[in-house]
Amino acid sequence: MPTNRAPLIVAILFLLVPLLYVGSYLALVDPSGKFHSVGNVLIWSHYRVGGKFVQGVYWPLEQIDRKVRPKAWHPASQW
After folding, report:
1. Burial letters for 34-67: b for 16+ Cβ neighbours within 10 Å, e otherwise?
2. I want to staple 72 with a disulfide (CB 3.0 to 4.6 A). Which of 27, 31, 46, 65 is the partner?
């Protein structure tokens, strides 16, 4: 008798998507920030690639990260 594996596959996907989201955020974020050149313009960014699009996608995680790791985002300040 064949079994329906669709619910298992959907459950695995629901578990993997948040892990991939957080993992990709951690791979791209640079709390100290750096200047990146876009054409002839220098832009200050906390992400290695992606510009404004990445800032919008990861905005919720960045807010959590700033509260969890304030010294990484503001190393000179005393918390």
Report:
1. eeeeeeeeeeebbbeeeeeebeebbeeebeebee
2. 31
How does pLDDT run across 10-62, given as a tens digit for each residue? 999 999 999 999 999 999 999 988 887 777 888 888 998 887 889 999 999 99
Whether the predicted pLDDT of 6 surpasses 80 = yes
CA angle 46–54–49, rounded 5-degree value = 60
As a whole number of angstroms, the distance between CA 68 and CA 12 comes to 28
Q: How many residues does the chain have?
A: 79
In angstroms, the CA 47 to CA 28 distance is 5
Amino acid letter, residue 70: P
> How many Å apart are CA 21 and CA 14, to the nearest integer?
11
Task: Please state, in angstroms and rounded to a whole number, the distance separating the CA atoms of residues 51 and 62.
Answer: 14
